[in-house]
Amino acid sequence: MSESSKGSPLAFGQVVIGPPGSGKTTYCHGMQEFMGRIGRKVAVVNLDPANEGMPYSCAVDISELITLSDVMENLKLGPNGGLIYCMEYLEANFDWLQEKLAAFRGHYYLFDCPGQVELYTHHDALKNVFAQLAKWNFRLAAVHLVDSHYCTDPGKFISVLCTSLSTMLHVELPHVNVLSKMDLIEQYGKLAFNLDYYTEVLDLSYLVDHLASDPFFRNYRRLNAKLVEVIEDYSLVSFVPLNVQDKDSMRQVMQAVDKANGCSFGDQEHRSLEALMSAAVGADFHFTSTLAVQEKYVQSQDKTVEEEVMDM
Ligand SMILES: Nc1nc2c(ncn2[C@@H]2O[C@H](COP(=O)(O)OP(=O)(O)OP(=O)(O)O)[C@@H](O)[C@H]2O)c(=O)[nH]1
Predict the structure, then answer these.
(1) What angle do CA 106, 110, 119 make, to 5 degrees?
(2) Which residues contact 44 (CB under 8 A, 6 or more apart)?
(3) Which of 47-61, 211-225, 280-294 has the lowest mean pLDDT?
């Protein structure tokens, strides 16, 4: 097995990561279709040994190497331990992965990753897989999906910010954080602030003040204030909103990722993209700014908390 492939052509792609159920598989399917329509050849690589019946056409599937159910049964491990074992097994079998990927030279790669959070915050196996891909001349960006409904709960949103920050620092790849399922954002409650407050991660002291109005959280005010201080000191976390069914939203995420991993597919693709998007003008797809997303998915309220704070 060659540890590094200095002479190999560059290969671009995304590792799609995020907590369980955040929409990684759905995103890979949507992005494969979207990129296919503008002429990119996309190979989706399933690295989640628990995934079955994927909706996308799968180029490489880790379950040919190892499956979570086999590991759990044979080694008597639970789902978390089993998944960690699978990732360590993959790390020990780089040559299998290299051989499988080589069959798709010239493609753009989407890696559909497992959902266990510890794989991205402190365990090393998957991070080592990404580092090995870099040695094989893969230019990857991490696309970190987080369910947008966490924005409706200030406490959960602070946890999401902490997880996103530690993932960015641990994974060590160019990073695009994405708020997924924008169409469902207010399903579990109203947003206290405008959407750009969450996507741009604006002054978090408002969030701490808002949280302190809840008697339970009042006792943890200093802890929350310190946590948001850490997030603001790094000043790294922001989000791109996403609805996989919206072409303009998909384009925005794709362009953010292209910028992050340095991918450029030239003029022909640019023309195809313009043609695809022009078909969307005047139709349902009006997603040019966070404000447009806000108008589309967030119900208008008399006043947001942000506006009330401003009025004071
Ligand atoms: N309404 C809506 N549902 C979505 C969207 N994206 C994903 N879903 C749904 O969310 C659920 C979980 O999506 P998956 O794509 O399986 O999530 P995952 O992150 O791959 O999940 P794991 O493999 O368990 O880690 C599915 O029922 C999807 O149909 C979206 O943009 N809008």
Answers:
(1) 135
(2) 28, 29, 32, 54, 56, 57, 58, 59, 109, 110, 111, 112
(3) 280-294
State the pLDDT at residue 266: 66
Please name the amino acid found at residue 264: S
Q: Does 243 sit in the ligand 1 pocket, CB within 6 Å?
A: yes
From ligand 1's centre to the CA of 25, what distance in Å?
7
Average pLDDT (19-23) is 94
Contact between 22 and 145 (Cβ < 8 Å): yes
Residue owning the nearest CA to atom 5 of ligand 1 = 181
What's the mean per-residue pLDDT of the chain? 87
In this predicted complex, what is the ipTM? Answer: 0.97
Residue 18 makes CB contacts below 8 A (sequence gap 6+) with: 24, 115, 144, 145, 146, 178, 180
Domain 11-311 class? Answer: alpha beta
Atom 6 of ligand 1, nearest CA residue = 23
